[in-house]
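Example for tutorial group B:
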């Protein structure tokens, strides 16, 4: 675990006030048993008490604490979260692999100039590795693999004491890593790697450091280090190489994963910026405090970017998706008094609007149901796992049948959640109808509400007869949900 406190002079520049690294391995045993051990939980609580003392002494006003794979996968992870909140008043937030990737991207972009190029960004932790294709605008696609250094060490522990055999088994295991077929039409210019293990590997390889603190390690040098590590025992790695005790056992599994990903990226050299999730959390928190995202708050921006990234994986019509999301967001804001929903629902609507058509990747026929499935089984940065079903449900109801209790996903929701889904889906249907031809003919729309009607006044570019027809058909759910007639100002 890492604790860092910082003071920002602007949104990109901060001075570190305090830092602490705590060698508590929460994933120890958890990846095999599915539960955090009582010893690791107690040690975590004790560390958080120290963190709370430091926060108070430094007068820190804004705090964010995140947990990754060990906590999010463990059956008793919620117990740890509750204890930390009760005993230290710090709210620990489990984040998805895609959120990890976004935070790492934020940190790396702040240090490395991406230019107009695309890069493969790899962040390896104890329980998972996040692999993303990125550029300066954001994450083009991202996948999280359950192939972290601690997880590999424990899963392959039976041969861990036989260095040569262990390395061969690691190589075979890591060979299963793949880059998604849908992303192969993009090509990265290089590999950027983050995590404590790659930083240690770069130091062992003698990589050169630039003025910003980024090291560079050649793939040939990485392979030479792997050869050295695989011939050494755990004790020799500590005594001869000066590795930390909690690093010496996991560094070989980590190095083999990095090597495999360098091969996939066709990278002869790896950039190691020496930063990662913790710096991303700091930058994200600063933006959230200042409210400088440019599209709602920072979390909403993260959800937007993550949904676009997921949509690109499924080759969606990006112009249509972005336009429907903007129309839906505008209608949501204008109809606030009518629907009575909050900012969390606004974010759900934006994500659903961006992803409503991703099911066409499988088939246009019944694509709303395919969209439901794909979203249900995906991760979105900034969206809690228990909110993903709401995003999926709203997207599912953008066409065809309205919500029914006979529908499994709708039946699983509570009464309040059903109301939210129905209202958001009704708005999405209207927004989608206004771009029925996918040509963005309705550039903007204004809404006027009275006791009996909602009047839409669209600004158009050219004939929009198809959109008018679609609105009459898809607006029926809106009328039933909100008890208002829906009509166009020109009618």
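The residue assignment follows.
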């Amino acid at each position: 675990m890492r604790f860092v406190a910082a003071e920002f002079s602007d949104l990109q520049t901060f001075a570190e006030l305090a830092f602490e690294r705590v060698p508590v391995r929460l994933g120890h045993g958890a990846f095999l048993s599915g539960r955090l051990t009582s010893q690791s939980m107690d040690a975590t609580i004790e560390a958080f008490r120290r963190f709370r003392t430091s926060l108070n002494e430094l007068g820190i006003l804004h705090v964010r604490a995140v947990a990754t794979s060990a906590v999010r996968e463990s059956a008793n992870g919620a117990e740890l979260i509750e204890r930390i909140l009760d005993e230290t008043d710090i709210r620990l937030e489990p984040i998805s692999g895609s959120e990890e990737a976004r935070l790492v991207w934020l940190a790396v972009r702040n240090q490395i100039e991406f230019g107009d190029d695309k890069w493969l960004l790899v962040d390896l932790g104890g329980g998972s590795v996040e692999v993303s294709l990125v550029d300066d605008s954001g994450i083009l696609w991202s996948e999280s693999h359950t192939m972290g250094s601690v997880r590999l060490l424990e899963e392959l522990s039976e041969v861990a004491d036989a260095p040569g055999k262990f390395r061969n088994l690691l190589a075979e295991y890591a060979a299963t890593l793949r880059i998604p077929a849908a992303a192969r039409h993009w090509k990265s210019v290089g590999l950027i790697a983050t995590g404590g293990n790659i930083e240690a590997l770069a130091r062992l390889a003698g990589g050169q450091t630039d003025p910003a603190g980024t090291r560079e390690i050649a793939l040939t040098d990485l392979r030479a280090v792997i050869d050295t590590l695989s011939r050494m025992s755990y004790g020799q790695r500590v005594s001869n190489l000066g590795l930390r005790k909690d690093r010496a056992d996991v560094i070989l599994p980590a190095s083999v994963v990095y090597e495999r990903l360098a091969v996939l990226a066709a990278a002869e050299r790896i950039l190691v910026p020496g930063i990662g999730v913790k710096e991303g959390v700091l930058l994200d928190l600063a933006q959230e405090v200042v409210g400088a995202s440019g599209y709602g708050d920072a979390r909403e921006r993260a959800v937007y970017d993550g949904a676009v990234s997921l949509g690109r994986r499924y080759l969606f019509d990006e112009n249509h998706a972005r336009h429907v999301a903007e129309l839906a967001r505008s209608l949501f804001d204008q109809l606030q008094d009518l629907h009575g929903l909050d900012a969390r629902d606004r974010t759900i609507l934006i994500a659903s609007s961006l992803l409503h058509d991703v099911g066409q990747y499988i088939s246009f026929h019944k694509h709303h149901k395919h969209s439901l499935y794909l979203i249900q089984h995906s991760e979105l940065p900034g969206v809690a796992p228990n909110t993903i079903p709401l995003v999926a449900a709203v997207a599912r109801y953008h066409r065809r049948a309205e919500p029914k209790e006979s529908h499994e996903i709708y039946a699983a929701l509570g009464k309040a959640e059903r109301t939210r889904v129905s209202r958001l889906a009704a708005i999405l249907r209207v927004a989608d109808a206004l771009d029925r031809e996918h040509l963005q003919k309705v550039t903007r729309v204004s809404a006027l509400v009275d006791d009996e009607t909602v009047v839409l006044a669209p600004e158009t570019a050219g004939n929009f007869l198809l959109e008018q027809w679609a609105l009459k058909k898809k607006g029926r759910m809106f009328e039933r949900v909100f008890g208002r007639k829906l009509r166009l100002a020109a009618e």
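The first helix runs from residue 30 to 33. Compare this with the pattern of hydrophobic and polar residues in the output above.
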